[in-house]
Amino acid sequence: MSNPILHPGSVSRHPKITSYMTDTELNVLSYEVSIVPAIEKGELLGTVTIRFQLPTAKSTLLLDAGNLQIDSVQGQHAKNYTRTGKKLRIALEPDRTLTTSITIYYHGSPKKGLLFNATKKEAYTVFFTSEWMICNDTPDDKATIALSISLTKNLDCVANGNLISTREEEERRVYQWQQDVETSAYTYGFAIGKFQKAYSNAGAIGINNYSPNHDAETLSQVFQETPAMLAFFEEKSGISYDQKSYSQVLIGNHYQEHAGFSLLKDAYGQLVLKDSTETNLISHELAHQWWGNRITCESWQHFWLNEAFATYFSAAYNEHRFGRDKYLSDINAYRKVYQQIKERGNDKPLVFPNWNNPSRDDRNLVYFKGAYVLHLLREQLGDEVFWGGIRSYSSKYFDLHVNTQDFQRAMEQYAGQDLSVFFNQWVYKVKP
After folding, report:
1. DSSP-derived 3-state class of residue 82
2. Number of domains the chain is built from
3. On the chain, which terminus has fewer CB atoms closer than 10 Å, C or N?
């Protein structure tokens, strides 16, 4: 999820996440999804085949279904299904294998998660994946996804992974996207519209930029920093970007990272054109391709490990590219947001006891107090130890899920010192 704050005192865009009741023994291996959106009506028709592992002693498959309407559930080992709130419960046959699959047919009119603009004939996804596909919508269950989207022929589509094929079906065109990298369901998504396009490369990585309002030359100018950002995050993490392409789409009124691509507010391009140093959101979303998408908080209680890292790395890139004063300006903005929250009496530890109905201040703490705390940790450890610890942590937990104790231990091991005083003061407790 993105960091929309460009100036001190602004408010984060991140939606109000509610904690999901999860089945920790469920391991989804893959999703195969077909979506037919009706943009003018704000509706969709969908099918998802979920291949999963669940201990044979478990008789119920529990999935997140948002406000979608279930038409049918099919599968060799599926007996029947019921709805409880936003949960779909599927009763399973007892004599089944550890690995099995079920297919669910559904439809809906999402009010969040998938946003429609009938006037512009645009649609895009924002975070709440279970509002447009049935899934296990928890950060600690990662899977691959094959996504098929059927559109009228005048529309383009960007989604996770690689575009495998397009095929014509009467008045429609079907886009088939395949992502073989396992990521959490909240990173799945797509954007639909009439896009102008600009293509370039960062070494072997294709950089694909899209906008309904900017031509190729302007798009290239808006996103001219992306290749350098890729190189910077590879160096700081010690991990190469391992997908074939990275795409950026200027659309709508939100900022959102997805696996392999990012969405940025349509108007953001104009801001970058006016000031070429206003690239925090581009770098923030790209940083999530490491910290968030691939090194993922195990639960929303440790959400700062996603968002504070991406927020901090946007400042770190500014330091690398535009100098120390630009970095300190960012850090001071983060500190001011945090200080205002403290003055209102709303400071909280970065590790939340729960993440039910977080307030605006809660969300800003995760982004900006968290980024400020990473700055303080760097100041305490020094550059060599701090960045070495970040590389060690990132390499150890790449493609895994993490909690705050994992991060603390990784930094302590690299630094060769006990950091419990620092973490107790700034992360686990509220500093007086």
Report:
1. strand
2. 3
3. C
Report residue 231 as tokens: 């190189």
How many angstroms separate the CA atoms of 360 and 368, rounded? 12
Of the candidates 133, 249, 253, 256, the one whose C-alpha atom is nearest the C-alpha of residue 193 is 249
Q: What sign has the CA pseudo-torsion 346, 349, 350, 352?
A: negative
Residue type, 237: S
Q: Which of 188, 205, 237 is where one domain is finished? A: 188
Q: Determine the average pLDDT of the residues in 162-177.
A: 93
Domain of residue 325 covers 298-428
H/E run at residue 353: none
The answer on 226 and 177 residing in a single domain is no
Integer angstrom CA distances of residue 113 from 119, 256, 273: 19, 11, 29
Q: Are residues 123 and 262 in the same domain?
A: no
User: Could you give the CA distance from residue 337 to residue 317 in angstroms, rounded to a whole number?
Assistant: 20
3-state helix, strand and coil shares in percent for the chain, rounded to the nearest 5: 30, 30, 35
Q: How far apart are CA 129 and CA 188, in angstroms?
A: 7
Q: Give the model confidence (pLDDT) of 340-386 as tens digits.
A: 999 999 999 999 988 888 899 999 999 999 999 999 999 999 999 99
* Tens-digit pLDDT profile for residues 250-285: 999 899 999 999 999 989 989 999 998 899 999 999
Please give the model's pTM, rounded to 2 decimal places.
0.92
Residue 169: which residues within 8 A CB-CB, separation 6 or more?
150
Q: State the Cα–Cα distance between residues 189 and 262, nearest whole angstrom.
A: 9
